[in-house]
Every structure is written in structure tokens, then in C-alpha cells.
């Protein structure tokens, strides 16, 4: 079992790998944004397969940041995100008339699905874009510090 210390050590190791990488800040940030978008969509289990396929198709996407963002958006973090997704969708659809089917379970499923998925898409896009710019800036700063540190040591 991994202790808190080991997790912190592994996290720092991955951050150092990202800083030292030859990949651009854009590549790292786009990997994080794509991983965020995939993780926030309600596709449990399928998101990992999507991530692997995207990494195989687009070689320029940083694998560490894509899968790192997928690890960040774990089920514990996603629970409040899904609640917020429904609330956002509810803001969009609360004024539209409810479509009625003969079976009440279908009515409930349709209304919940529409509301949840619309809100989830808006939230996933928003957090992906914000995550892109945030991670890009962080990587640029860390890479700049790494360059300055290495030139000072020479």
C-alpha cells in the first residue's frame, strides 16, 4: 500500500519529468484539457479507452498530463461535478415544456438525461478550457525556472 509520502514523491517525480520534457507547454496543457474533457463525460470505464486511443492517434499529446488529469478527476471528485452538471442543465431546461410519454419512468429518465447531459457538456468544456490555460501557464513557469536553474549551475 502506498503511503502519503510515496504518493507525494511519485507526484513530484512526474512534475519533474513534465518540466524537463522537450514537449511544449501547449502539448502538456492540451493533454490535460483532453483528459479533463474525457474524464468529465459520464462514460465510466470507457474514458480510459478513449484516452489510450487519443494518445495512439495524436502522438504530440503529452501522455503524463492526459492520464494525470484522468487520475485527478477520480470518482470522488466527480460526484460534486455531476451534481453541478445537473444544476446547470436544470437552469437551461427548467422553462421548457416537459415531453410526456405513457410511462412515467421514461418521462423521468428523459428529463433527467437531457438536463444532466447538457449541463455536463457545458461544465466539461468550461473546465477543459480553464484547465488548458492554467496548466499551460504553470508548465511555462516551471520550465522557465528549470532553464534558469540549469543556466545558473553552469
What does this structure look like?
- With 154 residues, the protein is mainly α.
- The protein has one domain (21-141).
- It has helices spanning 4-20, 25-40, 46-57, 63-72, 75-93, 104-153.
- The longest helix has 50 residues, at 104-153.
- 23% of the residues are buried.
- The mean pLDDT is 81.
Task: Please describe the structure with a list of short key phrases separated by commas or semicolons.
mainly alpha, 154 residues
Please render the helix and strand layout as text.
Layout lengths: L3 H17 L4 H16 L5 H12 L5 H10 L2 H19 L10 H50 L1
Instruction: Give the low-pLDDT segments.
Output: none
Radius of gyration: 20 Å
Number of helices: 6
Strand content: under 5%
Give me the strand/helix succession: HHHHHH
Note the quaternary state here.
single chain
Residue share in helix: over 70%
User: Span between N and C termini?
Assistant: 40 Å
Structural class: mainly alpha
Mean pLDDT score, rounded? 81
Compact summary:
With 154 residues, the protein is an all-alpha fold.
Amino acid at each position: 500500500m502506498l503511503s502519503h509520502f510515496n504518493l507525494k514523491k511519485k507526484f513530484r517525480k512526474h512534475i519533474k519529468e513534465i518540466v524537463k520534457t522537450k514537449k511544449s507547454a501547449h502539448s502538456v496543457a492540451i493533454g490535460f484539457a483532453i483528459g479533463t474533457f474525457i474524464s468529465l463525460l459520464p462514460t465510466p470505464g470507457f474514458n480510459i479507452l478513449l484516452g489510450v486511443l487519443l494518445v495512439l492517434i495524436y502522438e504530440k499529446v503529452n501522455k503524463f498530463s492526459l492520464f494525470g488529469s484522468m487520475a485527478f478527476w477520480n470518482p470522488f471528485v466527480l460526484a460534486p461535478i455531476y451534481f453541478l452538471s445537473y444544476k446547470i442543465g436544470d437552469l437551461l431546461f427548467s422553462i421548457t415544456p416537459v415531453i410526456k410519454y405513457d410511462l412515467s419512468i421514461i418521462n423521468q429518465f428523459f428529463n433527467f438525461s437531457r438536463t444532466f447531459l447538457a449541463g455536463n457538456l457545458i461544465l466539461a468544456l468550461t473546465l477543459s478550457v480553464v484547465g488548458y490555460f492554467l496548466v499551460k501557464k504553470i508548465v511555462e513557469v516551471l520550465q522557465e525556472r528549470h532553464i534558469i536553474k540549469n543556466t545558473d549551475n553552469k
